[in-house]
Amino acid sequence: MAQFKKTDSKIYSKTATVLSADTIYWKKLGVPTLVKEFGAIDYIDFSPVEPYLFAVTASVRVQIYNPITKLVVKNITKFQEGAHGGSFRKDGNLLVAGDELGKVRLFDVTTRTILRFFEGHKAPVHRTFFTADGHHVASFSDDRTVGYWDIATENHLLSFTGHEDYIRAGCTSPISPNIILSGGYDRKIRMYDTRAKDCVMTVDHGQPVESLLFLPSGGIFISAGGTSVNLYDALAGGRQLAQLSQHHKTVTCLQLASDGKRLFSGSLDRHVKVYDIATYQ
To answer: What are the coiled-coil residue ranges (predicted)?
Structure first.
């Protein structure tokens, strides 16, 4: 029988873990809390003011949760059909949401009272946002139009057209009350100026646009559609700055964190990716 000599395996010391600011941040996070909703969740928005309540739009209601207790503090059920895109004003006192019937409702967060009822869209309204001054509302609908409403008078001021398919994404500029951005399933991103009452810029994302947002400076906007996340310079006529392609399926949502220094993207591939805004890594 052949004789075998045992091989001495070398034992290497483990490499030291590099403690970056991100590593420390993630270690501080607690155990995830599971909250059960009544139906498919359409949109989640955080109030910009303490205690940073968050509104979850699902089924025919918008439920407002306390982030500390994880309990529902307000339940808005004034919708006949599915609710969409409930979002807070920057003072946290008002909330606006669209629905399957093409209506846009404005609520007082404290009393849950309907303060304004905007009618005019002919198809479901999937996203609604306040303008930077908090005096107007922009709504984005499947009827291929973007509505612009005055809160004080409840009047429909403008209706922007140009998209050739459903508008499922939109946002308003964080610094200018006149700039509105819309993204459609026609793959186009269109920027509107309420002073010019027209589209002032058009960008082709390349895939149906699912989500849009501005960076806090208002000079750069980000779009999600297909498997890519694109960054554009609004001040340079929509010049593309970067393309992030880390997902394997359609990217459906975007959100900023850490005072605008981190970008989150969520996808149908069941992953959430975190990017550094400074380096796009």
So the answer is: none
pLDDT digits (tens, 9 = 90+) for 177-225: 999 999 999 999 999 999 999 999 999 999 999 999 999 999 999 999 9
Q: Work out the end-to-end distance of the chain between its first and last CA atoms, rounded to an integer number of angstroms.
A: 58
d(CA 81, CA 176): 33
Residue 211, both tokens: 């989500």
- Please tell me whether the overall predicted TM-score, pTM, comes out greater than 0.85 for this model: yes
For residue 220, what is the DSSP state? E
Number of other CB atoms surrounding residue 205 within 10 Å = 25
φ, ψ (nearest 5 deg) of residue 62: -120, 115
Q: How far apart are CA 281 and CA 263, in angstroms?
A: 10
168 in helix, strand or coil? Answer: strand
Report the CATH superfamily, name and number, of domain 33-161: YVTN repeat-like/Quinoprotein amine dehydrogenase (2.130.10.10)
Query: 116: burial class by Cβ within 10 Å (0-12, 13-18, 19+)?
Result: middle
Q: Are 200 and 238 in contact (CB under 8 A)?
A: no
Q: CA-to-CA distance for 248 and 17, rounded, in angstroms? A: 29
Please give the distance of CA 3 from its chain centroid, rounded to a whole number. Answer: 68
Q: Count CB atoms within 10 A of the CB of residue 85.
A: 24
Which one-letter DSSP state was computed for residue 111? T
